[in-house]
Amino acid sequence: MDYKEFSPESLMMSYAYNAEDHQGSIKCPLYQTSTFVFQSAEEGKAFFEIAYGLRAKCPNEKLGMIYSRLNNPTLDLAEKRLAAYEGAEEALFFSSGMGAISTTVLTFLKPGDVLLYASPVYGGTEHLFNHALPGFNIGIVKFYAGETEETIINRVSKEFPGKKPKIIYIEVPGNPTNSLIDIEMCARLAEHYKEGDCKPLLVVDNTFLGPVFQHPLQHGADISLYSATKFIGGHSDLVGGACVGFSNPICEIRVMRSFLGSMMDPHSAWLVLRSLETLKIRMEQQAIGAAKVAEHLAKHPKIERVSYLGLLKNGEQGKDIYDKQCSFSGSMISFYIKGGEKEAYQFLNNLHLFKLAVSLGSTESLAEHPATMTHIDVPDDEKQRLGINEQLIRLSIGLEKPEDLIKAIDEAFRKVG
Ligand SMILES: *Cc1c(COP(=O)(O)O)cnc(C)c1O
């Protein structure tokens, strides 16, 4: 039977794993080893030729295990499962989300190239693009949710006359405001810049909704990218990242990963295998809870405005994009408390059940203040433009009973002002 006949959540317990090859162990063992023994010198040579891309695999030839920076059975299985989840050819896991992002962009950008990206992005990504990449003589152009293709194309030609972007990078929904960018519009932009076989690579940071509620590859993206620290790991006990897509470009990124050394370690990969089994029920349950919490927040007198995908109304900016590319609203809620930093901090300091911590997508609910925490590094004018002000609070809803979270929120509001 072809595995494609089954749903991803069914495959996460069995796909690509044969217990007979592992002493009958029902779960994939943790191969906590740095290196692997070759059966012969010839075999070692063949493995290296394939791993270094010196020749293609012969039909039925398998790449054996070499060294855990290049490959490892536990990591391999986690990668096969994530690829199956997205219906993609290949997936790679990294030591962190930033490892996935930096390795991907460094694979394809050379000095003199231009990167086009949609703001806002995760704070670390913003820093990498604006502080690290320009040091390698890479040009950076930004665009914003709601801008037209024409505006974006004009900005690129004004800032870098005669240049075409090598990578178009977006994060959707945007962190921390849940702004939406149209993936298909970005795919058209990439098409616009196509020249012969050369086309900008469209990379989508799918951390907030994927791989369950949003499928960038189905909307024309080349790479769906993750901080696996968040929903994929889902238990606040590992740091990881991932890239998913067609064999080409993923194979090129794999080679770069081998030499930057940004692969995931076997133990984290083993934890990821466990987490993938419950990914769908966790994400669904968290989103159901978040919808209830968001509805309650929207009615609260001490709140100015709630930014939650499930509350988008017809005609509002982003609603048409939401209907086209997202199948559910996820579990990230941002809201603007009435007042300023003082009121926001009073709320956070009196909030029970939630943990006051950055990160997101875990089983426990988290709360933070983007302007002075995750996004402290964003320049003031950019903060203002994106709506990241002192009133903004970001919640990540976990698996607690939503009614209990609402109780805790109401109690915290009573202490404000
Ligand atoms: C956390 C996060 C990252 C960075 O991932 P790390 O695992 O912390 O390196 C990138 N993008 C988004 C959207 C994130 O939330």
Question: Strands, helices and their partners?
Answer:
Blueprint: H1 8-11, H2 41-51, H3 73-86, E1 90-94, H4 97-108, E2 114-119, H5 123-132, E3 139-144, H6 149-159, E4 165-171, H7 183-192, E5 201-205, E6 223-227, E7 241-245, H8 247-260, H9 266-298, E8 303-307, H10 319-325, E9 332-337, H11 341-349, E10 355-356, E11 366-368, H12 380-386, E12 392-396, H13 402-414
Parallel strand pairs: 2-3, 2-4, 4-5, 5-6, 10-11
Antiparallel strand pairs: 1-7, 6-7, 8-9, 9-12, 11-12
Helix pairs in contact: 3-9, 4-8, 9-13
Mind explaining what this structure looks like?
The chain contains 13 helices and twelve strands. Helix 7 links the parallel strand 4 and strand 5. The longest helix is centred in the C-terminal third of the chain and has 33 residues, at 266-298. Helix 3 (73-86) runs parallel beside helix 9 (266-298) and helix 4 (97-108) crosses helix 8 (247-260). It is an alpha/beta fold and 417 residues long. It has a seven-stranded mixed β-sheet, sandwiched between helices. The model has no long low-confidence stretch (mean pLDDT 96). Pyridoxal-5'-phosphate is lined by residues 96-98, 122, 124-125, 171, 175, 205, 207, 227, 229-230, 239, 241.
Output the structural class: alpha/beta
Mean pLDDT: 96
Mind telling me the C-alpha Rg? 22 Å
**Percent in helix:** 25-40%
Strand percentage: 5-15%
Provide a short characterization of the protein structure.
Helices cover 37% and strands 14% of the residues. The protein is built from 13 helices and twelve strands. It has helices spanning 8-11, 41-51, 73-86, 97-108, 123-132, 149-159, 183-192, 247-260, 266-298, 319-325, 341-349, 380-386, 402-414, and strands at residues 90-94, 114-119, 139-144, 165-171, 201-205, 223-227, 241-245, 303-307, 332-337, 355-356, 366-368, 392-396.
